[in-house]
Amino acid sequence: MPKIFTHYDNLKVSRDAPQEVIEAAFRSLEQKYAPSKFQGSREVAERMLLIRRAYEVLSDPELRQEHDAWIRREERTLAEAEAHHAAGQARNLSQSQPTEIKRAMPRRNNNSPLRLFKRNFAEHWHYYAMALGLGYVVLANFTGVMPSWTDTPAYSQQPLQAFKQQPAPVIHYQRPVSTPYGYPWPKEADYLAGSTQLNQSGLSSVTVDNTLSANDYHVKLVYLDAPQAYPVRDMYIPAHAMFKVERINAGHYDLRYRNLDTGELVRSDPLTLYETYVDSTRTFQNLKVTLYSVAHGNMQTHPIREKEF
To answer: Which domain of life is it from (predicted)?
Structure first.
């Protein structure tokens, strides 16, 4: 099952750690990442914010209990998503692989008339050849006709024609008339009917901008921190539209999308969403990603295969 990143991970303690262990872990990390050792390091400053927030939660029995309940909910949601994904893969495999049917073969009869004739012919073939030649001579004497062996050439006199190899058939992409869930495509930018929305307990967001494109897109937000990446949001964004994906948990993601007009499949560079606490205030990220090329942009796209989508 995918691992949930928690306050216990930030303090590097187990979930059943007693209070004195949590206290000791916090003091050790506080010394390790002391600001005096890493002056001007933004990464270390953000790490210390996470460590302090983790200590605030785990040192408070009530807050720790709420955090444990959140972990159980997230693990249950991820387990259901993983089971759903595994079931879909098993269903696709069973549909694509033919079922092998083994039939019991009847026991061979070594004394059948056909086998006896074959064995006898193999041992006495020269007698059969002599009888056949004698019969041919007798037939020729009765009919008065002795056909010539040269009447018909051994091989056709027609010139051989070079074999013309047919080109492989070209598979043309056809735009799907309905979504993978069997519903019509939405009339405007929206989540696909029948899809499941996961990782919804965060505050970060990603705005997908398609306003300058003339193509419609099927877009997935894919979670990368699990042993096997899986989509957490599935949406449709038509040409000249924009869609905001909200309430996303912290973690690493990418966008994978299909151009519904051409069939082209690509993915974005990884996206990192952080959530931090500063003076008991929860801060989060709002990212914006465009589905069209932007001059001097810092986001690259990469072709993917169908099974990666």
So the answer is: Bacteria
The domain tally of the chain equals: 2
Query: 71-80 as b/e, with b when 16 or more CB fall inside 10 Å?
Result: beebeebbee
**Does a structural domain hold residue 183?**
no
Domain boundary among 45, 69, 92: 92
220's CB contacts (< 8 A; 6+ apart) are 231, 233, 234, 235, 255, 256, 257, 309
Per the structure block, which two tokens stand in for 115? 């086998």
CA pair distance 182, 176, nearest whole angstrom: 10
DSSP 8-state symbol, 187:
S
In a domain, 229, yes or no: yes
Q: Please give the residue range of the domain that contains residue 248.
A: 190-308
Q: At 12, which CATH number?
A: 1.10.287.110
Per-residue pLDDT in tens (0 to 9) along the chain, 309 residues: 556 778 898 899 998 999 999 999 999 988 888 777 777 677 777 788 888 888 988 999 999 999 899 888 888 887 787 777 677 666 655 555 554 444 444 555 556 666 666 666 666 666 666 767 666 655 655 555 555 544 444 444 444 344 344 444 445 789 999 999 899 999 999 999 999 899 988 889 999 999 999 999 999 999 998 888 899 999 999 999 999 999 999 989 999 999 999 999 999 999 999 887 666 666 788 899 998 766 555 568 899 999 899
What is the spatial distance between Cα 132 and Cα 149, in angstroms, rounded to a whole number? 16
**CA dist., res. 23 & res. 54, Å (int):** 11
Q: Does residue 256 fall inside a structural domain?
A: yes
